[in-house]
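Here is one chain, start to finish.
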Amino acid sequence: MKVLLKIIFTLFLFPIKTFAFENPKVKINNFFIQKYEVTIAEFSNFANKTNFKTEAEKQGFGYEYGVGWEKRKNWNYKTPYGKNPDSLTEPAVHVSYFEAEQYCKFINGRLPTFAEWSTAAYTQVLDSKIFEKNKTYSYPSGDKAEKMNSTDLLSYKKHYDVLKLPEGINGLVAMGGNVWEWTKDRKDNSALTAGSSWWYSSSNTTKNGAQFKPADFYAIYVGFRCAFEK
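Its structure:
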């Protein structure tokens, strides 16, 4: 099943343009998950329709790791590095767990549980000419870590346009590398992120590489994708 999002932007940060982007739902056993990480285009559509402001926008800065976590002025999902992005199909970052939840709810979805996310990322559920059906792999790219946006592989040294990254297990894109992805799993005031980001090596893209982060945290390295019941 596919959802075609026809998004018309009239944003002061971007030139006026008509933009069609398709982020299909992929059926994995008894749930669906988005093929791509939620993009700037999609999150902007949500924010425009609901007058939503992220905490990064309200505070006027995002976070990047330097000598500890450092504030970066005007870094938010619209301007992830403090300036207009190269593409509106880059992942939406500087978004907290709670903000990701609100977006998913807006499109009648939710954040995936870590169990769901892991099944989608590592176990080939669908028929495939590349991967063995019902086999669980070590990486979202298969038995070997390859073709993922991490420091030791594609090494773009920043997150990258999701439409320009290769498919992995179950035809999903960027389940390893690019940006960490929020999952529904919580522990106290933290939430579990999976898949690693471009700032880490591919060894972090395994299931055991998942990390808890404060649920109200937002940074250049963290994005998300949504899951659905139908």
